[in-house]
């Protein structure tokens, strides 16, 4: 393949890829909605609802009539022989072999069975709605877990613009400082070492900017994966986040309810299903009543002529069957006690979850307060470091300050900005954790 042909193929492949890529501009709620339809865990949780619906149909079938048809044909290669007492034919003390029946027998029948009463089936029918709600709540728990992570990553990526803006501002300052130091050096008011120090700082800062951009790109790929979005698609975050938004008065409303938490609702439904299970096994002590019927046609021939002339004999019946449980080796008692213990486990889980929610809310509240305080402190520290840098720069430009002082001020400013960005990220996570803990996310 020639170079031009290879280049053409590469350009064509790039064009095809560009055509299949999609651009998405999302708010955080749009990102969550996208994940509801595309995240694998959420999709499987929603499929569990459909699986439960089919399970319910299977349970319902036990209460509906069952109708079966059958067609059969028998070719007796050797007609069965029976022995009858010889007394019938005046030959006492002997048995005479006799063949009864015909070579060909054919039967066509239809059977009907209908369950009239079975306590376990009826409880299963009553539990259908709860079992659907149980799976639906499980899907909500999964969605909330994904939603929590999306909120954290989304707002951290939205806040990352602040980090890049600060780095760009620092780079612009150092470029200006490098120019000033170089001019002073040319005029004999500074040493070459002063210019080299600024150049090294500028190179380090530009390297930090590249690393920050790479980290942000990795964050975007992580968010796409969490949302179930193809990596080739373009994701644009349309919401911004600021310190004022993070500090919105969430801590003034300290009330919360266990039932606001999806996990608590899920366990409550699990307990309800446990109760259905106990009732189901208790009703197994009751008799079951069923109706059954049959209608059949039977024909017997010595020649294979079922489709010609000949009689088809009819048999039909209808009956009731009452099955009374008497003794099963204590199996039902074991099932009841097992189901009762399982419900006790669920009650213990609910008790433990209440304790966990209380602890989680208090920890989240403390962490959020601490994160807000730290963020405010680091913001004030950053402003102060910027003022110190500006004053030091003015002294340097007036010739009353040293290059060492301005380098130290620049280093302190970068450290203060880094601390502020980290505090901002921590406050975002703390806010989301507090909202989740109180069931308000």
Descriptive notes:
The chain has 441 residues and is of the alpha+beta class. It has a single domain (21-62, 118-286, 325-437), classed as Outer membrane efflux proteins (OEP) (Up-down Bundle). It is 64% helix and 15% strand. The chain contains 10 helices and 8 strands. It has helices spanning 3-20, 28-38, 40-61, 119-126, 128-186, 192-227, 243-246, 262-282, 331-397, 403-437; strands spanning 23-26, 66-75, 81-85, 95-99, 104-117, 234-237, 288-301, 313-323. It has a 4-stranded antiparallel β-sheet. A two-stranded parallel sheet has the order 1-6. α5 (128-186) packs antiparallel against α8. The radius of gyration is 41 Å and the shape is elongated. The two termini are 58 Å apart. The mean pLDDT is 87.
Topology:
Blueprint: H1 3-20, E1 23-26, H2 28-38, H3 40-61, E2 66-75, E3 81-85, E4 95-99, E5 104-117, H4 119-126, H5 128-186, H6 192-227, E6 234-237, H7 243-246, H8 262-282, E7 288-301, E8 313-323, H9 331-397, H10 403-437
Parallel strand pairs: 1-6
Antiparallel strand pairs: 2-5, 3-4, 5-7, 7-8
Helix pairs in contact: 2-5, 3-5, 4-8, 5-6, 5-8, 5-10, 8-9, 9-10
Distance between the termini: 58 Å
On the 0 to 100 scale, the average pLDDT is 87
Sequence of secondary-structure elements: HEHHEEEEHHHEHHEEHH
Q: Oligomerization state of this entry? A: single chain
The gist of it:
With 441 residues, the chain is α+β, with helices and mostly antiparallel strands.
Keywords:
four-stranded antiparallel β-sheet, alpha+beta, single chain, two-stranded parallel sheet, 441 residues, 15% strand, elongated, Outer membrane efflux proteins (OEP)
């Amino acid at each position: 393949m020639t170079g031009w042909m290879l280049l053409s193929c590469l350009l064509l492949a790039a064009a095809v890829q560009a055509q299949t890529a999609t651009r998405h501009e999302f708010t955080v709620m749009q990102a969550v909605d996208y994940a509801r339809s595309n995240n694998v865990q959420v999709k499987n949780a929603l499929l569990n609802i459909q699986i439960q619906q089919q399970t319910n149909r299977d349970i319902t079938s036990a209460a509906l009539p069952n109708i079966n048809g059958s067609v059969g044909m028998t070719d007796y290669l050797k007609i069965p022989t029976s022995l009858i007492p010889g007394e019938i034919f005046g030959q006492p003390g002997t048995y005479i072999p006799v063949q009864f029946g015909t070579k060909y027998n054919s039967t066509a029948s239809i059977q009907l069975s209908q369950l009239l009463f079975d306590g376990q089936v009826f409880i299963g029918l009553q539990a259908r709605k709860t079992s659907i709600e149980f799976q639906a709540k499980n899907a909500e728990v999964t969605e909330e877990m994904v939603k929590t992570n999306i909120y954290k990553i989304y707002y951290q990526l939205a806040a990352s613009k602040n980090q890049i803006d600060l780095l760009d501002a620092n780079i612009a300052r150092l470029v200006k400082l490098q120019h000033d130091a170089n001019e002073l050096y040319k005029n004999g008011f500074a040493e070459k070492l002063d210019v080299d120090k600024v150049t090294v700082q500028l190179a380090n800062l530009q390297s930090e900017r590249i690393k920050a951009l790479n980290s942000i790109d990795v964050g975007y790929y992580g968010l796409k994966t969490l949302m179930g979005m193809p990596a080739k698609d373009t994701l644009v975050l349309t919401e911004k986040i600021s310190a004022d938004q993070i500090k919105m008065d969430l801590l003034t409303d300290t009330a919360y309810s266990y039932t606001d938490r999806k996990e608590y609702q899920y366990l409550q439904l699990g307990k309800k299903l446990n109760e259905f299970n106990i009732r189901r096994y208790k009703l197994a002590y009751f008799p079951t009543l069923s109706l059954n019927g049959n209608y059949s046609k039977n024909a017997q021939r010595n020649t294979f002529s079922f489709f010609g002339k000949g009689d088809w004999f009819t048999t039909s019946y209808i009956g009731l069957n009452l099955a009374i449980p008497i003794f099963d080796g204590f199996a039902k008692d074991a099932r009841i006690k097992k189901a009762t213990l399982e419900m006790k486990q669920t009650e213990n889980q609910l008790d433990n979850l209440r304790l966990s929610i209380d602890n989680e809310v208090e920890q989240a509240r403390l962490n959020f307060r601490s994160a807000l305080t730290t963020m405010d402190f680091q913001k004030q520290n950053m402003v102060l470091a910027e003022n110190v840098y500006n004053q030091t720069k003015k002294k340097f430009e007036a010739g009353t300050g040293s290059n060492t002082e301005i380098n130290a001020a620049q280093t302190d400013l970068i450290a203060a900005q880094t601390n502020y960005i980290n505090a901002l990220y921590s406050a975002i996570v703390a806010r989301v954790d507090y909202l989740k803990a109180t069931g308000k996310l």
